[in-house]
From TrEMBL:
It comes from the Bacteria. The keyword Cell membrane does not apply. Pathway: Amine and polyamine degradation; putrescine degradation; 4-aminobutanoate from putrescine: step 4/4. GO terms for biological process: polyamine catabolic process. Keywords: Glutamine amidotransferase, Transferase. It holds the Pfam family Peptidase_C26. GO terms for cellular component: cytosol. It catalyses: 4-(gamma-L-glutamylamino)butanoate + H2O = 4-aminobutanoate + L-glutamate. It comes from Celeribacter neptunius. The keyword Transferase applies. The lineage of its organism: Bacteria, Pseudomonadati, Pseudomonadota, Alphaproteobacteria, Rhodobacterales. This is gamma-glutamyl-gamma-aminobutyrate hydrolase. Its EC number is 3.5.1.94.
Length: 304
């Protein structure tokens, strides 16, 4: 088969791109074909990673194609730092139920995203300041968070996920933090590279002796900031342990929850394996998910 110069260039570029993608996927994969040939079925079962459901957003690709997205950085953090298997969940009540999700997954990551929790979920009316919404995600995440709290199933909330945890427990939100007297603009820069958008921008002061201080080994950390909304009134059992310099809540957990039930307003998924603040969060989450998965497998074995 003879190819023109242009066809050869396209052919080479496509295969080079595919090779890079395959190499990248192989790096992330727990069982490459070579490993599968070495390990038997028993070893494969023993080494199966617990599953973390990544609750993402409904997006429109190129403005026309509806898609469910969870962000590659979230998947990388779950796979490489938490050492769990990331599973992207289409957050729509027509496709999944809370019971199915809790049975399928060992833990959940509630990600950030542009759509906000609808104010009706916390007893307020919609205004222009509230921005875009994802009612289908609301219909899944809010009851799922409450169910996880009661069952002790681990979850970790980020940005919108942080706000969802508060709303699920009966709290309320400010639609736009920067409009409040004395508050800074917590939104990301409108332009620039990922490094610029996710740059460390303000400290977060942590409660002395609290869960987050113990996790980080310090009572102050530097974080990025990429959000418009924020906690107005904390929900029942919501403990705020971290604040930005302007008083905006940044780190919370659910009091007396039997499982990992923590959330942060910033985005620790960015370079989670390298950042000294992000890594402990995802490592602790991974430990909690593995412990839950092992305990559940033990209960199933006893019944069998």
């Amino acid at each position: 088969m003879r190819l023109s110069v242009r066809s050869a260039q396209i052919f080479t570029a496509k295969h080079a791109s595919r090779a890079l993608m395959q190499r990248d996927c192989a790096r992330l994969s727990l069982f490459s074909p070579a490993k599968a040939a070495i390990f038997g079925e028993k070893e494969r079962q023993i080494m199966t990673r617990p599953v973390v459901g990544i609750i993402g957003n409904t997006d429109m690709l190129n403005g026309t194609y509806p898609a469910y997205t969870g962000g590659r950085m979230n998947a990388e953090a779950v796979a490489e730092v938490s050492h769990c298997m990331p599973l992207l969940i289409p957050a729509h009540p027509n496709f999944v139920s809370v019971d199915e999700l809790m049975e399928t997954c060992d833990g959940f990551l509630f990600t950030g995203g542009r759509p906000n929790v609808h104010p009706e979920e916390y007893g307020e009316e919609e205004t222009e300041a509230h921005g875009a919404f994802d009612r289908c995600r609301d219909a899944i995440t809010l009851p799922l968070i409450r169910a996880c709290v009661e069952a002790g199933q681990p979850f970790f909330g980020i940005c919108r996920g942080f706000q969802e945890v508060n709303v699920a427990m009966g709290g309320t939100l400010y639609p736009e933090i920067r409009d409040l007297p004395g508050r800074m603009n917590h939104r990301m820069p409108p332009d620039g590279s990922l490094e610029e958008k996710f740059a460390l921008r303000h400290p977060v002061r942590l409660s002395k002796g609290g869960m987050f201080e113990k996790l980080f080994g310090t009572d102050e950390v530097m974080t990025n900031t990429l959000h418009g909304q924020g906690i107005k009134r904390p929900g029942a059992r919501i403990v705020i342990e971290g604040y930005a310099p302007d008083g905006t809540p940044e780190a919370i957990y659910v009091k007396d929850a039997p499982g990992f039930a923590m959330a942060v307003q910033w985005h620790p998924e960015y370079r989670a394996g390298e950042d000294p603040v992000s890594r402990p969060l995802f490592e602790a989450f991974g430990v909690a998910v593995r412990d839950f998965a092992e305990a559940r497998r033990g209960r199933v074995s006893e019944v069998a």
